Amino acid sequence: MTMRKLRAVWIRLLGMIGAQRDDEEFAAELASHVAMDTDDGVRAGLSPAEARRQALIHLGGAEQTQQAHRERRGLPWLETLVRDFTYGLRTLGRHLGVTAIAILSIGLGIGANATIFSMVSRFVLRPAPMGDPTTLLGLHTTHGSDPCCNNFSFPAYTDLRDQAKSFSGVAAYYELIPASIGGGGQPERVWGQGVTSNFFDVTELPMVVGRGFITGQENAPEVVLGAGLWQRRFNADKAIVGKPVILSGRTFTVVGVVTPAFHSVDQILDTEFWVPLGNTR
Amino acid sequence: MNEKPDVWQGTLALMVLRTLETLGPLHGYGLARRIEQTSGNLLQLNYGTLYPALLKLEQEGFIRSRWGVSENNRRAKFYELTKAGGRQVKNAAKEWEQTTAILARFLAPAEEA
């Protein structure tokens, strides 16, 4: 039964093509029907005109019958939809100015959304490329019973680091430090973070070249560069490790370049360099 | 005189199939007359409603049609039962008998116990 219904829908779909010819064919069928009914009426003694009138009454109206037949032949709602669509297109075509503005604003809207989305997806939705994100936790203090703030005093941090037994390591970072970078080309303002010396070990960040900081050396004049900055200002120089970089007038030695996928722990800030926390005091 | 009842929804198809089964190929007008006569002229059949029903049966593959010449030498479209249509008559008739039998039980006068 269901197969029969499907078959009928398919035929009705096809019925939308060549509707003109089907109309003519059904008109012929109806004409022959009315003619036969009229013949019978005349045989029964009616005048030809009255017989024909009766035949049309029996039928319930030739035009109504045509219409009912036409609706059964195709899929009326689909035809209406197609007609509405073409009507819409024609109307748009007549008002070119409005259409252009509408297309332009929709285009801009989509474009802006796509840009914002691609940025969000780059920075926020993609997890930071850290060793094993499931074992990495962010620590917050609470206020009331709600998580509140993640700014710890340095002594609180050192206590946590030394006494918390649940963690293999506790690192801290301080955001954000502006610095001007000069030397060879236009000076530029870049943003960086001060991090504890164990930051790159705790986060298990892959390095493009070099290494992170040596644990315990909180005041070492060393810097880890973001891949973006390294490519932009240093032409992705593979031999950059050991070379000096001047940040806001102070000289740091490059010890490593971090993987390009890393921007910051929460991925929202686009951090471009990291120095040991002691340098920021 | 009472109004003649209209044809119930869905029963027209069975009437058409059964008429074609017993009488063989018929044109639309002939079918309409036959159905009226078979009902003992009790049914008020609007002839126009027959054609969408015929088209539906044809789309479902229960009947097929071809142009021919009527007994009075008029060109007319003739409808005939397909094999699937033959099976459908039997199924639908069985269902209909079941339905009427069930209803008859409800309508029968209550037995005095």
Would you kindly provide a written description of the structure presented here, covering whatever features stand out?
The complex is a heterodimer of chains A (281) and B (113). By secondary structure, chain A is α+β, with helices and mostly antiparallel strands. Chain A folds into three domains: 2-94, no CATH class; 96-126; 133-280, no CATH class. Chain A has helices spanning 2-15, 19-43, 48-59, 62-73, 76-94, 96-125, 154-163, 199-202, 227-234, and strands spanning 142-143, 146-147, 173-181, 188-195, 207-210, 222-225, 244-247, 250-258, 273-276. In chain A, the strands form two sheets. In chain A, strands 3, 4, 5, 6, 7, 8 and 9 form a seven-stranded mixed sheet that branches. In chain A, strands 1-2 form a two-stranded antiparallel ribbon. In chain A, helix 2 (19-43) runs antiparallel to helix 4 (62-73). Chain A is rod-shaped. Chain A starts with a helix and ends in a 5-residue tail after the last strand. Chain B is α+β, with helices and mostly antiparallel strands and 113 residues long. Chain B has one domain: Arc Repressor Mutant, subunit A. Chain B is built from four helices and three strands. Chain B has a three-stranded antiparallel sheet with strand order 1-3-2. In chain B, strand 2 and strand 3 form a beta hairpin. Chain B is globular and about 60 Å long. Chain B starts with 10 loop residues before the first helix and ends in a 6-residue tail after the last helix. Classes of the chains: A alpha+beta (281), B alpha+beta (113).
